[in-house]
Amino acid sequence: QPVPNLRRQVRSRRLQPQLGELALGRPGGKLPFHPTDLAPAMPTTNPKSYDACTRTKVAFLGLGVMGFPMAGHLALAGHEVTVYNRTATKSIAWCAEFSGAPGLDLGFCQSARNSFAETPRLAVQGADLVFCCVGNDDDLRNVTIGPNGAFAGMKPGAIFVDHTTASASVARELSTLALHEGLHFVDAPVS
Fold first, then answer.
1. Contact 116, 83 (CB under 8 A)
2. Which of 9, 19, 57, 95 has the fewest C-beta atoms lying within 10 Å of its C-beta?
3. What dihedral do alpha carbons 167, 172, 177, 181 form, nearest 10°?
4. What is the pTM of this model?
């Protein structure tokens, strides 16, 4: 069973600098495993067909139980997806699972179509739509506000869709901030 043992190794400090090098695409970032080793044993999405659509550049912030498959469906539908998760191994696992998505060639998931980023700001650059599904109000503020937050990197007129089950007060707060930045904010919580 290499994967559980591998996850234990990934959490160790010894491997963390290597993961950081890899996530940044720096030369010499080598892992003692193949990225597909991190993919779940069972797919996280159910097979389905997708209607033809215009390919859109999107970002997805938060790859938890809900966000991981949601971002996967966007990639499988043919959209150009950049993901961000505060735990880099989740982003790597997402890339490994969706390496077969249209246009993705796992050149470590940094293909022209799908990729992962080190910060929310980097993930959202150039995206028309940004989806977010994180844990709570504080997590939501952490990925949206500040110099490395999504709002700092979004292009004017882009749409931020928040799927976090968060408070109404944080939704109003972020909606006001988004409008001030020339962005659109949609509160669309999942439960």
1. yes
2. 9
3. 120
4. 0.74
Residues 45-94: pLDDT tens digits? 777 777 878 889 999 999 999 999 999 999 988 899 999 999 999 998 99
Least Cα distance to 99 among 114, 89, 79 occurs for: 114
Select from 191, 184, 138 the least CA-distant residue to 163: 191
Query: Do 126 and 57 form a contact (C-beta atoms < 8 A)?
Result: yes
DSSP string, 38-101: GS-SS-SS-----------EEEEE--STTHHHHHHHHHHTT-EEEEE-SSHHHHHHHHHHGGGS
Which tens digits make up the pLDDT trace of 34-46? 555 555 555 677 7
Angstrom CA distances, 102 to 33, 35, 127, stand at 24, 18, 18
Q: In the chain, how many H helices and how many E strands?
A: 8, 6
